[in-house]
Amino acid sequence: MTPNLHLWLIPILPLIGAAINGLFGKRFSRQAVAAVALGFCGAAFAMALWIAAQFSSLALPHIEVLTSWLNSGPFSVDYSFSLDQLSLVMLLIVTGVGFLIHIYSVGYMWEEGGYYRFFSYLNLFMFFMLTLVLASNYLLMFVGWEGVGLASYLLIGFFFQRDSAAAAGKKAFIVNRIGDFGFLIALFLMIKHFGTLDFQKVFDAVKPYSPETAGVGFLTAIALLLLLGACGKSAQIPLYVWLPDAMEGPTPVSALIHAATMVTAGVYMIARSHVIFERAPSALMVVAIIGTLTAFFAATIGVAQTDIKKVLAYSTISQLGYMFLACGVAAFSAGIFHLMTHAFFKGLLFLAAGSVIHGIGGEQDMRKMGGLWRKIPWTWATMLIATFAIAGIPPFAGFFSKDEILWRAYQVSWIYWLVGLVTAFLTSFYMFRLMYMTFAGEYRGAAGASHGHEEHAGHGTHLGRDEAAPASHGHGHGGIHESPAIMLVPLVILAVLSLVGGWVGVPGSLGGGNHFDKFLGPVFRSSTPALNTEHVQPGEAAPPEQTTEGTEPKTGHSTEIMFTGISVAAGLLGLFLAWLLYGRRTDLPDRIAASIHGLYSAVAHKYWIDELYAWLFVRPLIAISGIVFWRGIDQGVIDAALNGSADGARELSDEVRHMQSGNLRSYAGWIAVGAAAMIAYMVWMGLRTQ
Amino acid sequence: MFHLILFSVFGFICVAGAVNLLLQRHPINSALSLVVVMGSLAVEFLLLGAEFVAAIQVIVYAGAVMVLFVFVIMLLNAGVEEQTSGSRVAWLLGIPAVVAGMVIVCWALLTHSNAGSAAIGALPGHPADIAQLLFHQFLLPFEVTSILVLIAIMGAVVLAARPEAVERTKREG
Amino acid sequence: MVPLSFYLVLSGILFACGVVGFLIKRNIITIFMSIELMLNGVNLSFVAFAARWQQLSGQVFVFFVMVVAAAEAAVGLAIIIALFRTRETLNIDQVNLLKL
User: Fold this and answer.
1) Averages of pLDDT over each 10 residues, chain A, 690 residues
2) Chain C residues with beta carbon closer than 8 angstroms to that of A656
3) Is the pTM of this model over 0.90?
4) A-chain residues within 8 Å CB-CB of B91?
5) Chains A and B: how many Cβ contacts under 8 Å?
6) What ipTM was predicted for this assembly?
7) Whole-angstrom Cα distance, residue A431 to residue A610?
8) Is C23 close to A672, i.e. CB distance below 8 A?
9) N or C: which end of chain C has fewer CB within 10 A?
10) Is A672 within 8 Å of B88 when comparing Cβ atoms?
């Protein structure tokens, strides 16, 4: 018996919160707004926990059909939600981390204007994300997909009075749309070939196909188009350009949407569609290549950034590249594992960065920070834990997930492994660089950060607090200060998770049982023998129906342990180099930068990709819009037709009105003409009948 | 024969009078031409035997209506007509239309008509006979027409009165 | 014995003269007289047809036409007088206030 878990409630609860706050929040007090937002988000989290508690008793996948949605001939789509191990993991991450970030935001946004609007949007985002995660067909997932893009746009452009923020919101939405275009075409192809969009039905229909190794068949086309959609949402090459700009939004937004949840939607979608991808090896390879390239590329840019949030943004892009790499080598559960640990430590990093920014009064430029570890110790400690996690230092969370990805990548090609290793080194380097520049040494900020009460231009309209403006105004409560408890508690919780979160996935080579892998095993069980021969561990037999996940090799761990050691060494090397350049000899970075001026300039300018896109796509598009569409079609055809018909009517009436001349004689003339015609007609009729 | 000569002579006078009405520039001349037309028309009526109608034509039409016209012309001191620009439609469309219409009708009448001929004094219209018809068959139109005339008198008085006179009568109630 | 059509042609000519007078004359009173001319032409054709069909009602009709024409002339001239008082002109081309 399948119990009714009321899965539909989980997304609806935040939606109700969003509606209440959105419609009535303007009149509520801040406490009420916060209570509504936290209440509904917390309720969703509680439901997720309750479902997790009953999980073992469910028959999986657990599908609940709410109602029929579209019905067009043989094609139909329902509002139906499904639950399996993968969606449970995503569900817990989204609701759990989301709830923590909601709590944090209550404190962070306390002095900002538009408080109710922020929480309304945040809850709205939760609704869409949960719809995406719980959907049991592609169309409902697409609804969530689009919706999170919308919520992202609203939240990035939250300080909409700032031009840069509004532009960043637009950029995010438009770049996402390009990806969504690919997603849509993939959906259409699915409808054409399978006649349905339901996950179970599509995957059952795909399973009989053998992998398309020769050329590009329709499965490869679908897979590549889905990949395009994922690239847009998860900020991979070539559609990553929106994520750094998205840092214009408030820091909790960056933490929730652009670190923990929305950007992982692409990875989730690829993992969910693994059945299709496994039968399109060329598409899988493209996924891996894009992931690897993006990881490396973004890491190199992150090395030269000076804005604390931009470093974290490029770090996110880079880590997402790792997840894509994992999916590209068919190590889907490894990718999801890294998704989970990344949610913990990246969310923590962003929240802590927000705490730093909050503490020093709005400054985001790391060159103006320094020496903060004494003043904001809790923030420093939690951020340090997150940095160890992302650098892949054991026993923190990131180590296990990243290591598994690198190991599985090596088994497909050593190139993936090597690039991944170098990227790991770079990741460690720039993250510890961030730590040293922010917390160590002497404070380099403007002295004005410690003055007392300064006039605020309206306490509730603090726009621009998140921009890299000189710290010219403090809070009025004097100097650099630690954040309030409401902001620190989520940091601590996430820090604990960053430490222990990886322990569910300790691989067999290090003595663990890799429970995470086993848990997700049934989801990623696939029946493609051809794919599995590559993944055979040394010394393991290959049964006819092989699984790619969920089994652990029993022997031959020595190579794996060696590679583990190498990746740890890379992380430590990065730490050492950062200490050297930013802790010890702080004059060195500038000298190095000066000596490789060209390369450094290219990196610091993000390889001028934004400028390239602008020149290649944006300007021609605007030109075409202005010349062809606006002047040519809108003004020349549509307006001209409308005005032309109005003018024509006017001219016609202008001619006709001359008949009403007021001149009696012309009236008489017309009457005479009419009478003569009548007479002639009557005479003719009379003569005819004669 | 005699009938035809009389008809032609007086018909010619009719037409001549009508054309003269068009050609004269002073309205008083046109009015007098119209009187001539009415007179010769009365003779034409007589030729067809309509004695009563001919008599009324002279007494009422020529004798009262035309006098009224002449009175008004003299009252308003209408002078020679000014030459103002008229209506192109009237000249270009109206006159050709009328001429064409008349030509068609005349041609149809003269060539295709089988109306026959009328003798001199064809239908004697004695007053007694006409009165018979008037008070028996046409009683209702007769009465209505009399009311019409009454209304016309009142209307003419009101319309032609001087504005101050109207105000005074209103005030004096 | 005059063919009836002659009478009718004469009537038509008179009528046509009346219409042409209406079209080409500028003095309002002259236009009115053209209208009377038209009515006279019509009277002639009534009497002619009465003689043809030997029905006296034709002549009675002429009687009524005359009465109505008289009434109409009276009222029309009264209007002309009123018009003359306000517009100070008898030129029909200047009585054109009802134009667009």
Assistant:
1) 75 91 86 88 91 80 84 87 89 92 90 87 93 92 93 90 89 91 93 88 83 74 91 88 89 85 88 88 90 92 88 92 91 89 91 88 82 84 90 85 88 88 92 87 62 33 39 49 84 88 75 74 60 39 41 59 85 86 75 75 79 84 84 81 89 84 81 91 85
2) none
3) no
4) 669
5) 53
6) 0.90
7) 24
8) yes
9) C
10) no
